[in-house]
């Protein structure tokens, strides 16, 4: 049985690059607003026009004053809760669809799926080992630097390498 068309479409490059405000890592202006305008048009949702017309709102403190980001000093801009809730629902359903597809393939093609998973783990092992060794070296170097900064006379004391098998990442 061929995979559903929506799964095939997810795996094809479309050449479009997103550039605006992101909500759940997806562009608000070019994806979410047109999508929800279409769902309203089709009668699938009833998102108020002012929500889609002004999806970004200035944040306010409890006392009614404009809220500013303490770190950057910029005003806080939020996505309207009604729209954010709809986006969350779509995202949760999207995730559920991906999980359902994976479960379906894994149950219908147990041996092939298991073999693919085994090949993935096997192919990733050298990368995990390399990263583990690099991390161990970097941590040892940081320890050496910290010791050298605290006691200059101890700067040349070697740090023993960890023993045993690498811990998988």
Characterize this entry briefly.
The protein contains 5 helices and 4 strands; from the N terminus they run H-E-E-H-H-E-E-H-H.
Structural commentary:
This protein is mostly helical. It folds into 2 domains: 5-108, no CATH class; 110-169. 56% of the residues lie in helices and 6% in strands. It is built from 5 helices and 4 strands; from the N terminus they run αββααββαα. It has helices at 5-10, 28-41, 49-53, 81-108, 110-150, and strands spanning 22-23, 26-27, 56-58, 77-79. The protein has a two-stranded antiparallel sheet with strand order 1-2. Strands 3-4 form a two-stranded antiparallel sheet. Helix 4 packs across helix 5 (110-150). The longest helix is centred in the last third of the chain and has 41 residues, at 110-150. It is flat.
- Overall, the morphology is flat
Order of SSEs, N→C? HEEHHEEHH
Strand content: 5-15%
The oligomeric state is: single chain
């Amino acid at each position: 049985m061929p995979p559903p068309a929506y799964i095939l479409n997810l795996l094809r490059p479309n050449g479009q690059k997103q550039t605006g405000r992101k909500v759940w890592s997806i562009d608000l202006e070019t994806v979410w607003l047109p999508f929800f305008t279409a769902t309203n048009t089709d009668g699938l949702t009833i998102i108020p026009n002012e929500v889609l017309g002004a999806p970004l709102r200035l944040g306010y403190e409890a006392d009614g004053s404009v809220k500013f980001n303490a770190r950057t000093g910029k005003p806080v801009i939020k996505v309207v809760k009604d729209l954010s809730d709809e986006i969350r629902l779509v995202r949760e359903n999207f995730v559920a669809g991906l999980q359902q597809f994976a479960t379906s393939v894994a149950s219908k093609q147990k041996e092939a799926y298991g073999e693919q998973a085994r090949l993935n783990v096997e192919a990733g092992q050298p990368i995990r080992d390399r990263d583990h060794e690099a991390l161990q070296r970097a941590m040892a170097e940081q320890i050496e630097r910290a010791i050298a900064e605290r006691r200059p006379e101890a700067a040349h004391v070697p740090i023993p390498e960890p023993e045993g098998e690498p811990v998988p990442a």
